Structures are given as structure tokens and as C-alpha cells.
Amino acid sequence: MKIVLMEPLGISKETLDKLSATLTDKGHTFKAYDSVTTNTEEMIKRAEDAEVLIIANHPLPGEVIRADKNLKLVSVAFVGIDHVDVEACKEKGVLISNTGGYCDDAVAELAIGLTLDCLRNITECNAAVQAGKGKGNLAGHELAGKTVGIIGTGAIGLRTAAIFKAFGCKLIGYSRSEKTAAKALGLEYMPLHDVMAKADIISVHTPLTNQTKGLIGKDEIAAMKEGAIIINTSRGPVIETEALAKALREGRIKAGVDVFEKDPPLPADHPLLGAPNLVCTPHVGFDTRESIDRRADMVFENVISWMEGKQIRKML
Fold first, then answer.
1. pLDDT at residue 80, rounded to an integer
2. Which residues have a Cβ under 8 Å from the Cβ of 32 and sit 6 or more positions away?
3. Alpha-carbon distances of 121 from 140, 277, 284, rounded to whole Å
4. pTM for this entry
5. Residue 314 has what DSSP assignment?
6. D-isomer specific 2-hydroxyacid dehydrogenase catalytic domain: from which residue to which, for each copy (predicted)?
7. Cα 216 from Cα 43, distance rounded (Å)
8. Distance (Å) of CA 310 to CA 50, 51, 54, 306
9. pLDDT given at position 116
10. What percent of the chain has pLDDT over 90?
11. Contact 181/161 with Cβ under 8 angstroms?
């Protein structure tokens, strides 16, 4: 069987050799590419005749999926699969497995970090010290006792909620389905508008789907308390960028953002560039040394398990 790694996984050669040996030792063919391409023709060439494609977070277009006549499985080294043409996979009967769970701690910890930065003005305090200044009016706020709204109570949302609870926060939330584990943490579910209006801090953890694109728009942002904070470590399009930028420039709210419509570098005219009351990171929520090694293990485990007749972490 031919397996192709279409892009780098961010792991060492030694680790990749060890993982690929789990396939080649069984007589399978493994080919790994050490560069990213978004050129469709080049991707078709790379994928030619492969039964299994391994990708990370770069797009896998329908043209590539349809051109590979032997394709049976796409193993995605990422939680979301919105960068894969799912309809093309359905059309061809191609299965998809992801690596859900590999970065739960990583993303949750960044969400907390962005929150603390917004509350305690850490970035601004550093800039003041580096410029030879004192604290001025950079007094912040405590996290303890705040009401935190969790939007999306999947694995990452639940992990984030648990950390907020450890800080002594009250938990409220909104999700398409209510989770027993969330209620066990003391999280109270309520309609989205109520969460937006009642929370001091809102942390967004929904996947990007047709239903969640623009979930938080101008009306939801307008409902937020004066001085409230919104954190987005999920997907950029879940929040309407223009509405967020406007509220930030008006000084009504603060935000911590790790995700955008496309990964940075952002275009010079992007609405969030230069916006006040904002802390940004360049989509690094998932990206820790530990999580990257973990997802590599999982993406190869997906392939081995499927070959043995048991598809794990099934998305399609």
C-alpha cells in the first residue's frame, strides 16, 4: 500500500523515520515531502496512486482527491477538517480521520494566557518597562470571581472551562449540545445572546461549519458588557472581523485572538491590524513541542488502525 505525507509535520527526521517504519516494516511504501505546496497540479503529482494521504493544516482540494484513483483514507494531523474537501471525499467514498485531542491542553492554556494578558495588560506593561517607563495607569483586573462564557463545549472548551474554574471563575456557556461533563464543572447552559450579555470573559471554542460561520456578529458583540473580553482560539470566521474591530476601536471591549480568516502574515488592510485593546498571536494555539509530537503519533496510529480494519478518530 502506498502512503504519502503531503507536507511536513514539524517533527524531527529521527521521529519521522521511527513512525514511518511502522508502515515500511509491514511492506508498505511511504513517501514524505519536506515542503508545503498549495499548487494543485503539484499536489496531484505528489498524491498520485496513493491509497492513504497524510496532511496537516494546509488545504486538500477536491481536484487532488478526485485525481487520486486509489485514495481510500485521509489522515489529518489537525482537529478541524474544514480545509479538506469533504464533499469530494464523500463522492469517492474516501474516509477521513483526524487527531482530535492532541492539542486540548495547548489551546486551552493559550486561551488562559490571552485572557490574563488582557486582564493584567502584560504586553503593555512589558512595552512600558522596555521603554524605560513605569506602570503609569496599567493597573489590571483579577481573573478570580469573573463570569466566563464558554462558546462550544467540546474537548477544548471543556479543558478551558476546567482551568477557568481552578482560577475561581463562574462558568456559563452555549453549545449545540449540552455535555454532562460541562454541567459537572458547574457550567450553566443558556442561549448565546445571554452568554454574550452576562459574561465578563467569553472564550470561543466552536469548530468552523456553515452553522458557526459568523456565529458571533455585530448583535452578539453589541450585547457584551462594557470592558468585557472575548478570546478566540477556534477559527477566525466564527467571529465577524469587522464587527470585532469596530468594538475594539470604540474601546468598549478587549480581545485576544489567535485565529483569522487566513493565517498571518495578514494583509496590510486587515481590520484588526493596529486595533487597540487587542492581543494577537499568529495561530500558535495548537503549536507546542509536546502537541506536535503527539499529533504525529496519532496520525500514523490512524493509518495503522485503519489497515487493521478499525478506523479510529473517524470524521467521515
1. 87
2. 4, 5, 8, 16, 20
3. 6, 9, 20
4. 0.90
5. B
6. 16-313
7. 35
8. 19, 16, 17, 5
9. 98
10. 98
11. no
